[in-house]
Specification:
Structural class: alpha+beta
Largest sheet: 6 strands, mixed
Helix content: 25-40%
Order of helices and strands: EEEEEHEHEEHEHHHHHEEEEEH
Distance between the termini: 29 Å
Strand content: 25-35%
């Protein structure tokens, strides 16, 4: 039976467990990581993952010990100290007028090192801040770590508009580029509430089904094209990708939905005016700064 832990940013690492260790699924353990000794929950690795890891196994971490009741009390105190350190660091940065947004403070279990995660629009000269922190946290190694807004969301966690936990909090380890064309091609209104996540950037899941929409679009007439319907000539007003149908504006001004098999494309211009600004699938808020939604610069740093 193999065990593993999940560290920040959905990085999974198998555990080096001695034969006499009696670890249970979900149990708190002390683990020696590349950042020092940290507390994590152990979980059982299923056979499918074990098979994948046989080819490319992540770096295994050593188990120091199973957490004792005294250890858990120490860990609880540590979490309270992390909150205090977080606010103290934020206060120092504010006094220094540094443009930094702090995400999390995390101690190693021996409290010899503390890491402050922060986001910032530009590079920050935090040398004076580091002096303040060194004076405040004596005999503690200070690590100020710049991360991106997508990384921040993966640390803080939350739920998306789908009702599920954010993908970056569950399984997503690498962020792919996302742009508004993905939303437009899928007929999603270009409004922040529909197409952005908690990070303020475009939803990662816009990438997931894009190929399906493109394949569906190849078999359907595009918006604005002329078609012959059972009710006469019309012009495509809206494409319903998932239903594989189109809404057509007819010569009498009515709009009806037709399946692909019930229409035929017409060569040449059809003299019917359509206003796609009233089309829910093509609405776009003119006040939105599209570039800010697409800005992936420093949205993820890999510095977690």
């Amino acid at each position: 039976m193999k065990f593993a832990i999940r560290v920040i940013k959905n990085q999974f690492h198998p555990l080096k467990v001695s034969d006499n260790a009696n670890i249970k699924d979900g149990q708190y353990i002390l683990v020696r990581t590349d950042k020092g000794e940290e507390v994590h929950r152990a979980f059982i690795v299923n056979s499918s993952i074990q098979k994948i890891w046989e080819k490319n196994q992540p770096e295994p971490f050593s188990v120091v010990r199973i957490m004792t009741p005294d250890d858990m009390e120490t860990y609880k105190e540590q979490q309270e100290l992390e909150i205090q350190a977080f606010y103290k660091c934020r206060e120092f940065a504010k006094n220094r007028k540094l443009v930094m947004k702090f995400t999390k403070a995390k101690y190693t279990f021996d409290r010899k090192k503390i890491t402050f995660y922060y986001t910032a629009p530009e590079r920050v000269d935090f040398r004076e801040l580091l002096k303040d922190l060194t004076r405040e946290f004596k005999k503690v190694r200070i690590d100020l770590r710049h991360i991106g807004v997508r990384d921040e969301t993966s640390i803080l966690q939350g739920q998306g508009i789908c009702g599920e936990n954010y993908c970056c909090c569950r399984f997503l380890k690498k962020f792919e580029a996302v742009n508004t064309k993905l939303a437009k091609d899928q007929g999603i209104p270009i409004t922040p509430g529909k197409i952005t996540g908690g990070c303020g950037r475009l939803l990662c899941c816009l990438n997931y089904e894009y190929k399906n929409y493109i394949d569906a679009a190849k078999s359907l007439p595009p918006v604005g094209s002329g078609v012959m319907t059972p009710d006469g000539i019309g012009k495509v007003f809206m494409v319903n990708f998932l239903k594989k149908s189109v809404d057509v504006k007819l010569e009498d001004g009515k709009i009806k939905e037709y399946e692909k098999r019930d229409i035929e494309m017409i060569d040449g211009e059809v003299n019917i005016d359509i206003d796609i600004s009233n089309n829910l699938n093509y609405q776009e808020d003119e006040n939105i700064d599209i570039k800010s939604l697409e800005d992936d610069k420093n949205s993820t740093t890999g510095n977690i």
